[in-house]
Amino acid sequence: xxxxxxxxxxxxxxxxxxxxxxxxxxxxxxxxxxxxxxxxxxxxxxxxxxxxxxxxxxxxxxxxxxxxxxxxxxxxxxxxxxxxxxxxxxxxxxxxxxxxxxxxxxxxxxxxxxxxxxxxxxxxxxxxxxxxxxxxxxxxxxxxxxxxxxxxxxxxxxxxxxxxxxxxxxxxxxxxxxxxxxxxxxxxxxx
Length: 191
Ligand code: ADP
Ligand code: NI
Description:
Elements: H1 2-15, H2 24-41, H3 46-55, H4 67-78, H5 85-99, H6 109-120, H7 124-137, H8 142-151, H9 163-187
Helix pairs in contact: 1-3, 2-3, 2-6, 3-5, 3-6, 4-5, 5-6, 6-9, 7-9
Bound molecules: adenosine-5'-diphosphate and nickel (II) ion.
């Protein structure tokens, strides 16, 4: 659909230079995960899921944007098309809730799917890679990155909203756990 294609281009322009793990490739993986969950669960409005996934990191609170800034940017993008106002409001609500995901409950099924899709990208091989990229960017040492696995990543599986995401999370977590176990073995020094 041409609206989705254009939104992708717009988001690509805006996230091109991000080095914090919220880059365009992350957005596209979240988009792919969200569609995968939608295809299996067969629930929610596909267009709202697609738009919310594509826009979910457009103006993250980490970079000082607030709910209102995010609303403005999303309106700027979506008002170029004839999309029902009600749908746009739903997308804004989802992106705003997910941006402050720490603690906020996402109400709509579309929001739940996008939140799961975002969390899946913090798990598995890609989750490991992102943790080390992010850790490096804030000058963490190895132990601090390992701590992040226990503080956050190993908790995500049980916080998934949908059954489909929980299943994918199980496989990804297993791999991540094996990795941490092996890493522990390799870095242990008994001299
Ligand atoms: P969200 O996708 O909800 O915006 P974050 O911005 O918290 O999540 O994290 C983005 C990525 O960076 C994730 O893959 C996460 O595991 C990683 N990350 C976040 N904080 C840390 C940290 N302190 N150390 C290592 N990796 C981190
Ligand atoms: Ni994200």
